[in-house]
Amino acid sequence: MRDLRHPRTPIGFAQAQGAGGLRVELILGQVLHFAADPFAEGPAAALVETRGGVLVDGTRIAAIGPAAALRAAHPAARVTDMGSALLSAGFVDAHAHYPQTGIIASWGKRLIDWLNSYTFPEEMRFGDPAHAAAVAARYLDLVLAHGTTTVASFCTSHPESVDALFAAAEARGMRIAAGKTCMDRNAPPGLCDTAERAHDESAALIARWHGRGRLVYAITPRFAPTSTPEQLDALGTLWADHPTCLMQTHLSEQTEELDWVRALYPEARDYLDVYERAGLLGPGALFGHCIHLTGRERMRLREAGAALIHCPTSNAFIGSGLFDMAGLIAEGQRVGLATDTGGGSSFSMLRTMAAAYEIGQLRGRALHPAELWWLATAGGARAMGMAERIGNLAPGMEADLIALDLASTPAIAQRSARAGTFWEAVFPTIMMGDDRAIAGVWVNGQRQRPAEAPRG
Ligand code: GUN
Ligand code: ZN
């Protein structure tokens, strides 16, 4: 097998011809990619080609390697020279709520009051297709501007809100997962469906969107307290009928929520058991938060191969608690990273990595920048079952990539200027960077032009 750690010649197709006349673009910069999971293999699993290039042929990555060798091998390719910018796979945000774009940074409440005071009134507005379309477009333009090319997003209970997000993603060529957020109790009547409607409306949305282009449907019960057991059962049946869909929900976020789940489901062994009994535990399940887990829950999550999605800015902002990254990784859990917009306080996966670092410090484990970057790219892609397609730069993968300026503000520039190593140059951008660091974004091989500043 070829040694991927020291590519002397470009890895990939011998000659990128531009199949079918599609454009071939050679993007030059510092190329960061992963040969393995750095949590398992150490930081050396991250590979850097200091003066490197990514050859994009249509919608796919055709080759990566040293810039000079790629230029020589592909003289006809259009060259986009990003200078010393870092070239990486686009960020993967594995848990977000696009309808909460307008209420991000709402003050002073813990989870249940926050839902009732801010979230539910805002989500009521998404029965209006024009409102849903406007927010979906604004949200996707914001995340792209922050270097995020894939999200797993909750919508609202209105099917119109799902149509709006998938249509906006399709227009931008993005690979996303999303689904109708199902609730049939403990929420305003205007947001509640029933077990049957949740099933039937989700099924109709699956038929319309799942597997269309780059779109993936995620069956989406909001969380145990806002569903009856009948609704969870109906969604478990739906998942069994459509096993290639993802399933996303919340698990064990805040202690008051845990007490509430115990009261609502006295027969369940624990919170996870509520979902497991309904058939909502499996390899395609994405559980947001996962903070206050029992030993049994951890064992079952691992056995099932489910994904645990760490939402560090949200967990700090809503006051939920400290995710046990080191312990969960050590026992072999699959972990993804997410903003949880708008319970989370940012659209930026850089800011999210910084918060994950800080929470790691509070728990006594300093996450290496290579681990943080992997979580924000390949780890998220693995959690979403998309690791073969996105989340890394490698020949054959879909061309979702970003270029980052590692000196995007004076504060960052003065720190990265004295860096002695690659990761020392990157870490200030992780800790202090935002959308100003994003110098270029390619989605499915297409360079994105910055959208107009969001209005209104
Ligand atoms: N639990 C149930 N719904 C939500 C939500 O919208 N955000 C967060 N952070 N937690 C939830
Ligand atoms: Zn959430």
Automatic annotation (TrEMBL):
Pfam annotation, one family: Amidohydro_1
Cofactor annotation comment: Binds 1 zinc ion per subunit.
Broad EC category: hydrolase
Domain Amidohydrolase-related: start-end pairs: 87-446
SUPFAM superfamilies registered for this protein in UniProt: Composite domain of metallo-dependent hydrolases (SSF51338), Metallo-dependent hydrolases (SSF51556)
Catalytic activity field: guanine + H2O + H(+) = xanthine + NH4(+)
Key words, A-Z: Hydrolase, Metal-binding, Zinc
Keyword Hydrolase: yes
Coiled-coil region list: none
One GO biological process term: guanine catabolic process
Pathway: Purine metabolism; guanine degradation; xanthine from guanine: step 1/1
Family membership: Belongs to the metallo-dependent hydrolases superfamily. ATZ/TRZ family.
NCBIfam families recorded: guan_deamin (TIGR02967), PRK09228.1 (NF006679)
Function: Catalyzes the hydrolytic deamination of guanine, producing xanthine and ammonia.
Protein known as: Guanine deaminase
Organism ancestry: Bacteria, Pseudomonadati, Pseudomonadota, Alphaproteobacteria, Rhodobacterales
